[in-house]
Design goal:
Structural class: mainly alpha
CATH architecture: Orthogonal Bundle
CATH superfamily: Acyl-CoA dehydrogenase/oxidase, N-terminal domain
Number of domains: 1
Order of helices and strands: HHHHHH
Number of strands: 0
Radius of gyration: 18 Å
Strand content: under 5%
Number of helices: 6
CATH class: Mainly Alpha
Largest sheet: none
Distance between the termini: 62 Å
């Protein structure tokens, strides 16, 4: 289901990726019906239990190493999840931010203690990752945040 009607690249045609895509699509059909998605939109959030169900289904931490509590996949798995959510109109679920931005930040920049504390709970859905910004003038550009330290005292 490619909107641009161009062939899938070879790396997305591997059998494991195709099977994963089919599995994710079925999971979304079961857990994110059009009626459920409309409810998410009306309530400005997805039900909390959906995060736990996502963790149980192995949809959280797709590209995180297994040694750190992840699923051991790669970014193609994240792409599959994002595409399926979009194709099925369930893209209001913030799982891609949780998976592809927050968890990698913790994994790349966290201490071993922080990784051990946070990654398993993000993986299971016990915790939900998000990003909040308050810096004036940065908008949604996290790299545009500027700070200045002034020694005082």
């Amino acid at each position: 289901m490619n909107v641009l009607n161009v062939p899938e690249p070879a790396f997305m045609q591997e059998e494991e990726i195709t099977l994963f895509s089919d599995s994710v699509g079925k999971w979304i059909d079961e857990h994110a019906s059009p009626e459920a998605v409309q409810s998410w939109i009306a309530n400005s959030s997805v039900p909390r239990e959906l995060w736990n169900q996502s963790g149980e289904a192995g949809l959280l931490g797709l590209s995180m190493p297994e040694a750190d509590g992840g699923m051991g996949g790669d970014y193609r798995h994240e792409v599959v999840l994002m595409r399926q959510l979009g194709w099925k109109g369930a893209d209001h679920f913030g799982i891609s931010l949780h998976n592809a931005i927050v968890m990698p930040y913790v994994w790349h920049y966290g201490t071993e203690e922080q990784k051990a504390r946070w990654l398993p709970r993000l993986q299971s859905g016990e915790l939900v990752g998000a990003i909040a910004m308050t810096e004036p003038g940065a908008g949604s550009d996290l790299q545009g945040v500027k700070t200045t330290a002034i020694k005082s005292g």
